[in-house]
Each structure stands twice: as C-alpha cells, then as structure tokens.
Write a structure and sequence with these properties.
Blueprint: E1 7-18, E2 22-29, E3 32-39, H1 40-46, E4 53-58
Antiparallel strand pairs: 1-2, 1-4, 2-3
C-alpha cells in the first residue's frame, strides 16, 4: 500500500459498532485507542472485524493545541 499521508498508524481493531449508515471503528495503536467514523459500506469492503490488523490514517489540514 502506498499513500501520501504521513501519519499512518498500524494497530488492531478492538471494536466495530455499526449505526444506521455510519460505523465507529476503534483501533488499538500500542495501548492508545483511536476511533474512526466510516461508512458501513467501508467496514464491509475492508472486511473489518475485531482482531484484524488495520491502519489508522490521519490526514488533517488543521491541528489545534491547547493548554490549561
């Protein structure tokens, strides 16, 4: 797989929760869990299921930083 995004995090799917049209996919990246909202069709196309290896690809135009 080649992709232009630089923030590619490999992990394991720990939960897939489908809704009416959108699913929440939780991926464990070395002890930190990242949640992605994707379509149910994408879950089916990627054959995502708990225990499967997957990549969380982060592509953002803005990142905000805050402190107390």
């Amino acid at each position: 797989m080649k992709i232009s995004a630089r923030n590619v995090l490999k992990g394991k799917v720990v939960e897939v929760t489908k809704g009416a049209t959108t699913a929440h996919v939780r991926i464990d990246i070395g002890g930190t869990v990242v949640t992605a909202s994707i379509t149910n069709a994408s879950v089916d196309d990627l054959k995502l299921e708990v225990g499967k290896q997957a990549y969380a690809v982060v592509k953002a135009s803005d990142v905000m930083v805050a402190v107390d």
